Amino acid sequence: MNLNKRLRKSIVIGLALSLVLPVLAACNNNSEAKDTEQRVLRIATMWGGGDDTWLRQQFTEIFEYTNPNIEIEFVPAIEQSMYGYDQPKQGEKQPDPVEEMKKKLTGPNPPDVVMLDYGQLSTFIDDNLLTPLDPMLTDDKFDTSVLVPAVYEGLKKLGDDKLYALAPTFSSSALFYNKAMFQEAGVELPKDGLTWDDVFNLARQLKSGEGENAKYGFSFNSYSGSDPFYDTIQYSAPLQLSMFDDKGEKMTVDTDKWEQVWSTIVGINNEKLLPVMDDPSKPRPMEKAGSYNPFQGDNFLSGKVGMTIAHYGYINQLIDANKNAEKVEGFKPVDWDVVTVPVHPEAPGIGGNIWMNGVMGINAKAQNLKDAWAFIKFINSEDWARLKSRSSYDLVSHVKYNKPKEGLQYNIEAFYKLSPIPNQDNMSKLYQKMPNLHRVQELGRTKFQEVLKGKKKVREALKEWDTEGNALLAEIKKNPNGPMEGGVGGEVYTK
Asked: Is 144 among the domain residues?
C-alpha cells in the first residue's frame, strides 16, 4: 500500500507540474469574471482524520490550485486516528461508518460533497440523501457519451436510471493469456465474451505435462496459493447467489444452482485444470537449485498457466518482467494479451469486476451546491482525465484517454466492456451488523474441502451446510458480534 501511495504521489506531482498550466488557462479562458469570494467546500469521507495528503493529491489539489478562493475541508464519518489510542472492549459494538455518514449529512453544518464506495451508493440514494445530478448535467451540456458505459450506466442503475454520483477513475480485471502457449498447443486464441465453459474447454486443450513440469490452462489468479472454495465465490459472484436470506436468519444453499457451482469447481479441480496450492512443507524448485527466481510465486509469468484473471495493475508487472528478462536465467519474455473475464450465460455481459474510485455525489442538504457541482464536474472533466490517464493503477472514465502503455498493443477495452457485478449492499450491511456471519462462510469452506477430498457428495455437503448453517445463524442472532462457543473448521486445503 505504501509503495502504491509513493507511486501515486510521484505521478501526480510530476504530471501536475507539466499539465496544470494548460488546465488553469482553460479554466481562466472560460470564466467571464474572476471569482474572488472566499468559500469552503466540505467533502465527507467514510474514514479519515489526521493526514489527508493522499486524498488531496488524488482528487483535490489541481482544483484547489485553479480555485484559490475555495478551501477544501475533509469531513470523515469516523476518525480513524481514534483506533490508535483506544482499544475496543470485547463484545463492544463498533460504529457503523454508513450510519455515521448519514448523521453527518443530515446534522448541523452538513458537508457538501460525499465520497462513497460503489457498494454503498444505493443506500444513500434510497434514503434520499443525495441530489440528482441530471439537471446539472443538462444545464452545463455535460456530454456523458464520452464516459465508459460500464461506469456511467453502472452508476445510473443504482438510481433507477437517474444519476446521483460520478466516478473519475476505476480499476478492473480481465483475462490475461499467453499467446505462445496457445500457439504451441495449436489452440485458437481467446476472444472477448467467452463463457466460463469456453474458458474451461480451452484450459483442457492447453493442459500438459506432469509433476513439476505440468502446465495448466487456467487459474483464478496469477499467484500460487488459490483456495478452491474462494474460487467458487469468484466464479459465482455474477449469479448473485446468497448463502442466507437478507435478514441473516435462514440458509439458502441447498439448491440446484449452488450444486451446479460447486460441481463445476470440484470437476475442474479433479481434472487438474488448475494449479494446486503449494505445500509449504516442501522446498520449492528455486530453493533446490539455490538460485533466485523472481517469478517463482507467479504462475502466469513462470509459464505454468496459459490464462489467468488479474487486475489492471498486473500489466506493470508484465512490462517490467519482459524488460528485465535477460537478467533471469531461463526466463523468456511473455507474449501476452487480454480479453474480457468469462461470463455466465444466465448473466450475459456481467462480470467486469469494476471498482470505481472517487465515487462522489452531492448532499441533498449541501450548503454550497454551486461549488460542489463545480468540483464534481471538474474531476470528471476531459482535462482532469487527460492528467490522470497516465496512472499505473487506474483507468479513467473518459474512454478516449484509456490507451495501452508504452506503445504496446493489447486489448485495453477488455477492462471495461462488461457491466459491473450487481450491487449487494444489503449483504455488506448485514456483515457490519453481525460480524459473526463470517463463520457461516467458514463452515461452507469446511464442507467444500470434504467434497474435494472425496469424503462427501456435493449435494450431501450442501444439505449439511444448510442444516448446520441454520443452527449457526440462530446462535449468531443471539450473539451477533461477541465471542461464541466452539469454532468452525478452517484448515488449508492441499492436494
From this structure: yes
